[in-house]
Amino acid sequence: MKRIIGRRARYKGKEHPYLSEVVVIRAFIAQDTDDVDNHLYLDNDADIEAAGGVKPTDRVEVQPILPDGRRSWVTSDPLLRDLEFVD
User: Are 20 and 34 contacting, i.e. CB atoms less than 8 angstroms apart?
Assistant: First the structure.
């Protein structure tokens, strides 16, 4: 099973310029529809794998890592393709 939840990554996109290092906490799987009411909101790797995995065009919910190493309580939803995993 491919691990997504809990992984650390660097944000490389332009949509969220305030992000740098983040931790993935949830995946939003689009299931080939733009209707967000039909997206899957998954928070564990087993369910993500059962849904077919996260595609580069799917979004993930992330928590920024603060300079002191703690996680921010604020979250963002970048595209998976805009993350470079560091772990």
Answer: no
